[in-house]
Sequence to fold (333 residues):
Amino acid sequence: MNILILQLKRIGDTILTAPALSQIRATFPEAKITLVLHGPSGQLADAIPQVDEVIVYQTKKTNGKLWGKLMFTHWHLAADFTGTDRSLLMTMIARASLSFTYKRYRKSILARMIYNAPVTASARDLSTVDFHLAMSMRLSSRPAPLPTGPHLRFLAEDSTSLNPLPKRYAVLHPGTARDEKYWTTDGWLDVATHLHQSHQLPIVVTGSSDQREQDHLNPIRDGLDQRDIPFTDLSGKISLTDSARAINNAELVITVDSAAMHLAAQFSRPQVGLFGPTNPYHWAPTHKDARVILASAPDKVTSSFVPKHDKAPMAAIPASSVISAIDDLLREQ
Fold:
């Protein structure tokens, strides 16, 4: 049996699809599973053991291998987690016996013709992980139980990128793909100062090489220097795989809503996640060592979320709330 999986969204979405991939593998242990990712998400290819093959779609490239694979393979099942015109085209070319996607992506006449196996799960009413698991459960009348996580596996590789890291440290990940999810420079600096002075935890800064993100990080790095806070800056200098290792080995991880937050959740690391415009009901980590602070309820840790989220600017979150959550987590370690 050949199974085609299309996940053409961002890195964070790919991370949150990993449990569904685990369930698909458990349900179809003998199948040949091909996963199609998009651009930067291809960095996760080696960390996804549930599939036999990963093909990365590259924008502005011919992608001959991908189109040939889609066209000349006999696909038994296709599951489109993406719902874009591009993924619709890929599903149409694949001509699988059963083509699955969410009902919300079957609005056009063409989509209803191509996707003959709708998934009725509601994105509004489910976390993103559960929304994707609804797809994996729909692929079979008798889906296997979900295997225990973590659902990503970062294999050891010959790399000296992490050699300078101290034995104990806290990861700060201020960056994200959307400007409105950035927290304040002063907030990050106050948190770093507290970690250094009260917990003697060195700081490790992670992030991408994206220039917009680097521009946001510059005043934070300058402020750390001015406050004489020791830190290791890994942002834009290491691979996503090494970033995942740094997060997995951290004593504590503090992030905005980002791929780094989802990685910390994969590994059940003690973490504090900050939310403003995005809805934690869909994206927040839920393990016991996760603490979530909302800009709409900034003076406390929030542990219960609702589908209809009150948005608020990230600047509404005070450093004192993050520091309180940090102290609470570190007391439990």
Q: What stands out?
A: The longest strand covers residues 32-38. DSSP finds eleven helices and twelve strands in the chain. The chain has a mean pLDDT of 94. The domain at 2-138 is CATH 3.40.50.2000 (Rossmann fold).
